[in-house]
């Protein structure tokens, strides 16, 4: 009892100190610790000791059950941090050899650094007890974390019979900071994650759950008087070798393989022109992805799938380009010959600009009921600009501009946005955008052909009557005028306290709005949303630690006032023992089907209004070290988009991630979906994504990935002609060695094949052997 009283009093004092913005000094020591995880260097005795003694999640500022101490100092070139993480049961420590950024579920220690001390973003560096690195950037403006960002830093970990130690060195050139000041001030948080029955977040600071901005509450540290960023030049040459073969298996001679051998050198340059401005340049870049994307099942969807960016050139300072809406989605840029990017931040001003060309042109054609992506074999130019000014701690304003153009096509967009936080619990977001798009008739013809449209209904001077394809209403729209000028806006407000949250938003996107550089899959809609969430917090002795009830209601019309969708949903979620989580919800939705007998993405007089009722649940558990199991279930009546009716849908997605020892991991994900309508089956779809990885050490691994798709359709229950069966198989064998995120070696083999009604068996149509090497020179 006495300990609890003392801890409560210390908590009040800590909160008071935080409110007064107490600043502590970090020592300068002209020495470099050896990063080996042993903590036996004498320099650590001179470092600042910081206790990590607060449970900040799922509880709010309760005493830590374990002892953790951080030792911190800087030498003008690097920030050195050591963690001594005691554990009364070291056999329960969860730590595995994994690839970088894949150990987030392990025991971890780490540090968050707001290097500009502007409460807008923070670098995150985390390490598991074996030294595996995780890093990311937390963006307070968008409330997101980008774990695709990779810095070059050093770490090592050692497990022993009292717990484990970790040492890290973060070169200051990895951070963006203002070195014009003699004494620099940065906000930092020192952390430990303890995953046992609960996953405890331990911190050196007190965190108020009533304040939605956790970066804003980080304590401040001064020092770094001799720290200079210098030019920080990085030169990264790369070489990609590939030997690929492809064939047309729908043709008459499937034995006719076409060879394509490629040797592609490339060069990347990173230069800190000033301490506040960074230039990235790339020549003949290899923008291919080495690792296969996670398989996604799309069998009864009208909107395009989203895939995240994974390429280094676009990921560096990617948060500088973020706004409330996704207006810069760089996966649209497929194969550039060059790229130039300029980014920086100083005195509250943050900016980013990039220019690239592209050998291909991927164009999203959006409607109010769906979207499609058309890939054209023609060159394009791409540019994006983002600027943000942080007026004060509570107000940020920004602007985004993008441009894409080709010989007979141009899309321009300009946007203005603001985020205002008058209190710790209230947030207002506003974004206004306008676009101008010009498609020539020849370009629209290409879109029509690429979208498999029925051009017989289009003007004869644009599409030939002999063509047989289902047209896209959005394409027809642009053929009727020379230019499209579209407007859109977003307004939202949120009040968020410790126990409850209320929110409302309104979005309006005009029919002619286009954000071709971004990911905007729906236009011609006006959506109002409002909702509420209530949270309960358990005590340390409860079997549950957190519960929340959520509900929202939304309604969407097009610009003509026609109802597109009206939905109400509610769900109850509970975090329980063995790191378990269960979420149960129900939904009722009225929504439009797609045009009968047309593949249009727009509402018209033939679009019917249907009612959907769904029940769903998501469950996951991490009962022991190295095991994760999850299950997503949905059932109810759902619109059959291909046939403009309602059917009965069942969906299941089990996920299992299993470690067999410290080095071998199995990842299995399966998606199953079936739909019945009018008393008969419509389709049954299965997608399996299985990956086996042997991680030799923290630098290298061997992985095999298999993605298999099997879709079985009842052709007699479809209006239009479809394949009765489709099977697809992709496999990849990959060896990876990473000295750091930019000095890497990859070698592997990948192939693809499929089977449809015209083929008697699954046949490969592509196979590739590839190797990639890059080396980073840092100056």
Automatic annotation (TrEMBL):
Residues 1-19 form the signal peptide. Residues 35-204 form the Carbohydrate-binding domain. One of its GO terms (molecular function) is hydrolase activity, hydrolyzing O-glycosyl compounds. SUPFAM superfamilies: CBD9-like. GO terms for biological process: carbohydrate catabolic process. Keywords: Signal. Residues 262-333 form the DUF5916 domain. This is Uncharacterized protein. It comes from Pseudoalteromonas byunsanensis.
